[in-house]
Amino acid sequence: SLNCVEWSLLPPATEEMVAQAEQLKGRFQGDPSFEYEYTEINAEDAERLFEDGKEPMIKEESRLVATIEQIDRAVGIIPRGAFLKTPLGSVRENRNFEGLSLTEAKKLSSYFHFTEPVNLKNKTLLEKADLDPSTDFLDSLEHDIPQGSWTVQLEKGGTVVVLRSLLWLGLTFYHVPMTKQYGYVYFGTGEKNLDLPFML
Question: Are 159 and 86 contained in the same domain?
């Protein structure tokens, strides 16, 4: 929105937009038509991005779309059991999900990335033997790299579990144990915390 009255949907993100946005550093300008220039870029990335001979320009609107996509991929999470995988392979919301117990809610292993699994495919058969294929079909947060990129806290006298990402500062996930209430919100600058491995 340019006037906070009329709103329109952002276009879907493409892999090219995400690749271009990853090369940009610094904060957003607040103007969707602002065009970024590539200043600090290595030779390999330059060759890939400038294939057609002319320097590509990326508008802030495209950078915003790509950043939202990056955040959703990296830190969009759900509690274990909130979604089920059917024997036919489709994924749907679990209508019987009544929330995690307080003990389970305090463990990182009880939360999954809500994206296509990557680490799950690399597990051995012995590791997969303990998993339930209907609920454990996504990547768990406990194996995120770098280790320690999530904080788990109890709020409101232990009635709400809050997870915060240290990789994307400003991402907060909440879950009220023993209820269906959970969700996440991002209030940040749109910049990934690349210094995190040195801070841990």
Answer: yes
Helix H or strand E segment including 17: helix 15-22
117 and 93 in contact (C-beta within 8 Å)? no
* Rounded mean pLDDT, 115-136: 68
Query: Does 149 lie in the same domain as 182?
Result: yes
Outline where DSSP puts E strands in the chain: 35-36, 58-59, 77-79, 83-85, 91-93, 111-113, 150-155, 160-165, 171-175, 182-186
Cα-based torsion angle of the residue sequence 97, 98, 99, 104 in order, rounded to the nearest 10 degrees: -90
pLDDT single digits (tens) 139-158: 888 888 888 889 999 988 87
Query: What is the model's pTM?
Result: 0.77
| Count of domains forming the chain | 2
Supply the range of the domain harboring residue 37. 15-74
**Helix ranges, 33-188 (H):** 43-49, 60-75, 102-105, 125-128
